[in-house]
Target: Tetratricopeptide repeat protein
Amino acid sequence: MTARNAPTSPRFTRLALGFAVAALLAGQGCASVSRETTGSIDRDGSGQVAAMPATQLDGALRSYGAAYEKNPRDKGSGMAFAAVLQMAGRNDQSLAVMQQVAIANPKDRDVLSAYGKALAAAGNLPKALETIRRAQTPDRPDWRLFSAEGAILDQMGQSDQARTLYRKALDMQPNEPTVLSNLGMSYVLTNDLASAEQHLRQASTAPGVDPRVRQNLALVVGLQGRFDEARQIATDSLPPQQAEANAAYLQKMLAQQNTWSMLKEKEKRG
Model:
């Protein structure tokens, strides 16, 4: 199947912009994923899960919620509970949890980073940017914070500044897939889908990469009208449950304003 250019109508461009913002909110580069078990939550609570089954998510909410209730000041318990709350779409509650953890750990860079992410997920971008910048220190710069700051700037419409930060992060951590993914989605925000695909493909080759990178690549390929290829990327070499979840995610994103049907018709006519 040959690649086709994305539709260039203003409506399609607006769709692309909306999809990119959603992807950036879901996959800011500050999060880390366990290399031992992709999709698990790290011990510090900073990792996130893509397409976690509902029953597993409910269990995680109960487990981490109980640990947090026992000791709301504990960094690990609080960050883990906030992370799963974000996965469940409970951003306001996640922010409230991180506020308490930040009060108890006011100078901890991991906590400030997670707090900034929670603020961004809840829509308070200026405060999120302030918090992330406060966590960064010139004498010990952290590539994760550069990437997180870039994701927030992208959401604020400052993509050029965001990409400068992503490249700083890549100078410190070459070929880091979370940064490459954020950089790729940054290009979606300006409707440069070819550049977006290039960076997301590079990110998707990393061992143990976060499944959301594959989701974002499938999304960008789908936005260019290559429907079958997008579905294959979203489902290839995955367990059936994960493949089904990824396909559902892709269809949900592209189905908005009938984009899914539009692409399928384009395939048939091709």
